[in-house]
Amino acid sequence: MEQINDISAFQCLKDQDFSKIKFGNFNLLIINNLLDQIVNENIEHKMISQIYMICYVFKNSIDTNQQYKIHLCSAESFNYSSMWKTDSQLPGFIDEFIYEESWENVDFTVYDFILCHPLYEKVVLDHIQENYLFEFLNGNNFPRLFSLVDTSSTDLIPVFLPYVTSLIDALYPSFDRNKLEGIAKFKKAVNTDYTGFDLPKQEEKFVDLIKNISITNINHPGHTFNRILLIDDHKRSFYIGDSCFWLQNININIKKVFPDGSITVICRDQRKINFFNKIFGLSLDENLSFKYAKWDDVNFRDYDIILYDSDLTIRFLSYVKENYESKFEGTPMFNYSNKNGNEIEWYSDLHYKLFFENRQPRTDLISNIKAAKSSSESEIKIQKQERLNAALWLRSHSVKKGEKIVVLIFNSSSPYKMLNPEIQIDLINNMALHTVAKILLFDEKGVGLMETLKNRLSSVAMDKIVVATQTGIRMDMSLLCDDAVIAIISPCTGMMHLANGIFRYLRKNKIIEKKNIPLMLVYTGNFMDFDIAYHPNNWWFNSQVKCAVLVKSDDGFELVKLNKVPSGYAEYNSISQPLKQMSVQHLFGFLKKNYPELSSGLFTEGFLNQRN
Predict the structure, then answer these.
(1) Same-domain pairing of 357 and 413
(2) Number of folded domains in the chain?
(3) Is 90 exceeded by the pLDDT of residue 321?
(4) What's CA 502's distance to the chain center, in Å?
(5) Distance (Å, whole) CA 417 – CA 425
(6) What does the DSSP assignment read for 240-306?
(7) pTM value?
(8) Which residues does 115 contact at the CB level (< 8 Å), separation at least 6?
(9) Which of 168, 192, 216 is the endpoint of a domain?
(10) What is the pLDDT of residues 501-523, one digit of tens each?
């Protein structure tokens, strides 16, 4: 049989031609298991909303006189109505689309469109290669393939499939005013009538199993655990900063409890494992590893204790129930939550918190504070050779030995966290013309930053600018910690968490002296339009990174230190301001006021006085 040896041959799927599609006549298959939508211990509202809206929009685009199908594969038994208000139009809505069959057993060729979660992209394409290769390569009647939008991270785009939004955008012009009004009304109900499906409801399905596991757990209170398994698909938000906290929490909550143990983390999302290991693979010690694995391929008997992420409660306990005697009986198992302790309102008998607290040494508050300040949980190891390679790269890009570097980072996971593009250009220009340092910028996506700057700035300014274009995340991390770097200025973004971890490692291992650690400064403000529960304390408290917050002042706006803003969300949101209000003047004024020694040595004589 003909084979596609490299799955990248499916790259052609990105190029979609909608000109021949008759939108009134089609069959639709949606591959999206509801259990994969449980995030932060509840059904993820954004994702389930997407499913409901797609079913509604496509149902209203079908010619009602024709017999066409919309199938939502749902092999698991779940009452979708339980997550909506009882008086809403939504209970029962999805029932007509439920197809109680595993997608692997469905005949793809009877459908015109197939939509799948990005989590399933590779396995779906593998399935096509194994079962439908002739139809895919030789026929025009094979269904068009699209991906649902992964609401956990815009960094995790599907590799081969175009987003379903491109298909829906093509649908909209065919809707009349009444249909558009109906869509708007339905969308409002989806946003307002959601009640959720929390952890207590999830564990109600496994009362007897939980009793059996709890008995095993009680019988192993002082047992030595040398081989620890954490099962975590990390369905939570997954940007660089989130991946830093994933590693940090494992170090604090698991590695500290089992300091001599070997910890294996398995994840069923290949994209996330690749993303994580690309960043941290060279920083992990030999007793901690992150791997992609299907559960059927894991020998659970190899481990002394199993921890499963709470978002996997139904899926994993269902798997345990089916395989208890052959794979799990006698092995302690605990529900591992990634929530902060003060966010958890309810603990089951399987909760890892109870096990964790029983194995912690009792210490006083002062000892805990000292331990936190000297802790290694947030350290990120950078290899000596990586730093040497970064130094060579800088020398090859006109940074001479003895010159200083200021790093300016502008990109973030949300535009609300970023400066206005014109302010970015103004900051680059002023730093290039009025400081004694070279200015290092990153063009990690290769958007042509260098050419853009050449068209906007003078040759004098350009002589001071160095752009690292698609050098890779590890090289970018190594450039941040070069000896020439005296300041890193950035929005609230993951690269600064990496910088914080790197310099903690370099300082702890006496590779760099404290006095030579550069100023790491994050500017931030009000993100209510993006995240009403945002507070910089959650990200930068007890960090080496300094934080400047844009607030109201008597003269309009100013940047102030983090300890000058209230700790409560409501109070913070009342005084903080959106970053669209921030100017270069605010940043320079903050530097002059709070870091006079750095400023006097960095800026050309008299410049800051002229700006003020």
Answers:
(1) no
(2) 3
(3) yes
(4) 20
(5) 16
(6) HHHHHHHHHHHIIIIITTSTTSEEEEEES-HHHHHHHHHHHGGG--TTEEEEE--GGG--GGG-SEE
(7) 0.78
(8) 28, 29, 30, 31, 32, 54, 146, 147, 148, 164
(9) 192
(10) 999 999 999 999 999 999 999 99
